[in-house]
Amino acid sequence: MIATIPPVLAQRMRAMSAEVVREVVAEVQAAVPAYRPDPDPERDPTLVVVRNVDAAIMFCLQNPEGADQVRWEQVFREAGRLEFAQGRTMDALQSAVRVGARAAWRRIRVVAGELGVPTETLLVLADRIFAYVDELCAVAIAGYSEAQATAGGARERRRKQLLKMLMADPPVSPHAVRDLAETTDWPLPAEVVAVALEPTDHDGAALGAEALADLDSSTPCLVVAEWTDALAAALPGRRIAVGPSVPVERAAHSLAVARRALTLVQRGVLPAEPVLRCADHLPALVLLADEYLLTQIVRQTLAPFDDLTPKQRGRLTATLLAWLETRGGINEIANRLAVHPQTVRYRMHQLEELLGERLEDPSERLTLEIALRGSILLAQNEDA
């Protein structure tokens, strides 16, 4: 690999190896904060990196033709994996290798000068040593990336497992959930919101670590501590229903509500908002939680209107709902319905004939309002 290197230079540098390592360790620790000294010298992360750099440079000097290159690539690939396992960044690794190489080169240059090595030889030596160190640094980064990808895949599997735990019925032990959450880079919040999504081809890669997500199934969903606009931006081209905020152990209930809401949006019953927040539509969701029961309430409660024409029924039910909502203010009802107050009085007289004492009973009034609102929602469902 490196020609015309005086053997005596390699011999001198090998004899000084321990001293050079100490100098390089000190320089790396001063220049790269991630490489602070370890109380156990044999486990000092700087010492591991520097020993590898120093040994590789010695190999460079003693093996000009690059023999055993594969071995050193294996060493540095494993060093990269170790750096990831110990929680340091790729930037820190690259900085440590290059700072170490520069520090070692300064000592080589001094020794070469003492031995009278020609300047031209030193220039060639410098170019080739740093090119070699760059190659090994790239190999270390590849090892780091491999370890990162492996860990990322394992973490992603654990996150999906955690999501399944949160959605389990019956619920999984809180201790099991907490223990798994600690391994997934997802701080377990006190409350969460579950989000139901329409399936698309978009992968949602920009969601980030804040979301536990299953975007691959036919019923995609995610769980987050709090819904944000940034999450919506990371999920373009989807209808989204955000469930109510619930204690983390009730996450499955939040998702059930969100999925029900998404179905109602798709059917045209709830508004087709880009992001539908269930908390803004809870009355409708409660009424439509069991459409069969709601239909029975509507039929039973509004049976007195059955003999009317559709037009009469529409006018009187609209007036009744306005009366229930305004608690009897004739003028307010008239303004809401855009009719004359006398028209309201006439319709109220008809309602009294149809419903009698039910208008005076608070429980009956509540049932009437539920039935009237339910009939509107069911009609929207039929139209859809």
From TrEMBL:
Transmembrane segments: none annotated. InterPro entries: CdaR-like_regulators, PucR-like_N, PucR_C-HTH_dom, PucR_C-HTH_sf. Residues 316-373 form the PucR C-terminal helix-turn-helix domain. It comes from the Bacteria. It holds the Pfam family HTH_30. Residues 3-167 form the PucR-like N-terminal domain. This is PucR C-terminal helix-turn-helix domain-containing protein.
